[in-house]
Specification:
Blueprint (H helix, E strand, L loop, with lengths): L10 E6 L2 H9 L4 E4 L12 H11 L4 E5 L7 H13 L4 E5 L7 H12 L4 E6 L9 H6 L4 E5 L8 H4 L2 H13 L3 E4 L5 H8 L5 E4 L15 H13 L14
Parallel strand pairs: 1-2, 1-8, 2-3, 3-4, 4-5, 5-6, 6-7, 7-8
Helix pairs in contact: 1-2, 3-4, 8-9
């Protein structure tokens, strides 16, 4: 697996559902290629065969992450899914935390996986708030990182559900805890500059990269280029400075 170094500037995570999409985002500057099936939920797992094709084609040359799917928070369900996903050869395994409370048995399961060298990222959902109190426990479990996303893609984007001050607190507290931190959730190009000012480790996109901004549609080359350009061009933009347009 790739050695993942802490980023100097926020990275661009692009979610893909096929090898063709993975090749597209790899060619257009995605820093993290995230494997998932958007038709199967917020964190729908990509079919094992397609996941294997992507790992074979791009693994070792690009950082790959993959979700275990929208699964119940039960240790006996989560553990084999983590094992199978990690064994596929991805660099990061993502688990959705579908609930408001931390479960000690599930935390212990994640800690065991982390102790075995799996880079586990827990995805928290904005519908439950910023959940800042969870971060120390997740860090103590030895997890690699956290991500703040949205569960219901039809009821608003990340910045509709949480204010920028709440997102800033999430990023700052994650960093204080030593957790690799990402922001996602129906992000649009207009969100890029405000979120860059918060300095997350990465920002995740799917819908903004698709035809007609529909997350279950196929990725669109022009949309991918536009998002990457907006990140790269505005990477040093501060909150009190005007953004720079992509051309």
């Amino acid at each position: 697996m790739n050695a993942i170094m802490p980023p100097v500037t926020p990275q661009f995570l692009a979610s893909v559902s096929s090898l063709a999409e993975a090749r597209l985002v790899a060619a257009h500057g995605a820093d993290i290629i995230d494997l998932k099936d958007p038709a199967r939920g917020a964190l729908g797992a990509l079919a094992a065969a397609e996941r294997a094709r992507i790992v074979t084609a791009l693994g070792g040359r690009h950082t790959l992450s993959a979700t275990i799917g929208d699964r119940p928070l039960a240790a006996d369900v989560i553990a084999p899914a983590i094992t199978a996903t990690a064994a596929a050869g991805v660099d990061i395994v993502k688990i959705g935390w579908f609930g408001r409370q931390l479960d000690s048995a599930v935390l212990a399961c994640l800690a065991r996986a982390a102790g075995q060298g799996v880079r586990v990222v827990v995805v928290l959902f904005a519908e439950y708030g910023a959940q800042l109190d969870h971060l120390p426990s997740l860090a103590d479990a030895g997890l690699y990182g956290v991500m703040l996303d949205t569960m219901d893609k039809q009821s608003g984007a990340l910045r509709d559900k949480l204010g920028d001050d709440e997102l800033a607190a999430f990023v700052a507290r994650s960093r204080d805890a030593g957790l690799y931190c990402g922001l996602a959730g129906s992000l649009k190009q207009a969100d890029i500059v405000p979120l860059l000012s918060l300095q997350p480790d990465y920002m995740g996109f799917r819908g903004a990269l698709c035809r007609d901004s529909q997350r279950i549609a196929t990725l669109d080359k022009a949309a991918v280029e536009a998002v990457r350009c907006a990140i790269k061009t505005n990477i040093h933009t501060l909150a009190d400075r005007p953004s720079v347009a992509c051309v």
